[in-house]
Design goal:
Layout lengths: L9 H13 L4 H58 L3 H32 L6 H24 L6 H18 L3
Helix pairs in contact: 1-4, 2-3, 2-4
C-alpha cells in the first residue's frame, strides 16, 4: 500500500539512494545485480503467463551465465596464482572477482526470495501486489541505471584498502 499511486518523489528518492549505494565498495555491481532481480520479478508479475514463461527462460540463461562467471573467475584466480606463485599484489584482483562472483549468486538468491514474498503475499489485495510490482520495476530500472552511470574503471586494491580501513574504524569504536 505504501507505493500505491507512486508519490512524485518516489523515483527521486530511489535515484538518491542508488547514487549513495553506487559510491560504496562493489556498489555498482550490487546495484546491477539487485536491479536486475527487481526488474525481472516485476515484469514477470506484471506481464501475465506468456511473459512469465519467456522471462523464466531468460532467467535460466542468466543463472547459467552467472554460474559460468563463477567458474571463470575461480579459474582466472587459480591461473594467476600459478603464474605469480602467490604474489599478493597480483592475486588481489582475481581473488576479489572470484569472491564477488560467489557473493552475487547469494545476493540474487536472497533478493529473488524477498521479491517472491512481496509479490505473492496473499494477505495483500491484487491491486496492491500490482503496485508493489510497479515499484520494484522502477527500483530495478533506477538501480541498473545508477550502476551503469558509476561504471568507471575500478581500483580493486583501493576498494579493499577502503573496506579494511572502514572495518578497522568500526572495530575501534565497538565495545569489547
Amino acid at each position: 500500500p505504501a507505493v500505491r499511486g507512486f508519490p512524485a518523489d518516489f523515483r527521486r528518492a530511489a535515484e538518491e539512494h542508488a547514487k549513495q549505494l553506487a559510491a560504496v565498495s562493489f556498489g555498482p555491481e550490487m546495484l546491477q545485480t539487485i536491479g536486475y532481480v527487481y526488474q525481472h520479478h516485476a515484469e514477470v508479475q506484471l506481464g501475465g503467463v506468456g511473459q512469465a514463461a519467456l522471462a523464466g527462460l531468460q532467467h535460466r540463461g542468466h543463472v547459467w551465465r552467472t554460474r559460468l562467471e563463477v567458474v571463470g573467475s575461480a579459474y582466472r584466480a587459480f591461473k594467476q596464482y600459478r603464474a605469480t606463485q602467490m604474489a599478493p599484489d597480483a592475486m588481489l584482483e582475481p581473488m576479489l572477482e572470484a569472491m564477488w562472483s560467489v557473493n552475487r549468486i547469494d545476493i540474487e538468491r536472497t533478493v529473488r526470495h524477498a521479491c517472491k514474498k512481496v509479490l505473492a503475499d496473499a494477505a495483500v489485495p491484487p491491486e496492491d501486489r500490482r503496485a508493489r510490482a510497479e515499484a520494484l520495476r522502477v527500483l530495478g530500472v533506477v538501480f541498473q541505471a545508477a550502476a551503469g552511470d558509476a561504471a568507471a574503471p575500478v581500483d580493486r586494491r583501493r576498494q579493499m584498502e577502503d573496506a579494511l580501513r572502514s572495518a578497522a574504524m568500526r572495530d575501534k569504536g565497538s565495545p569489547r
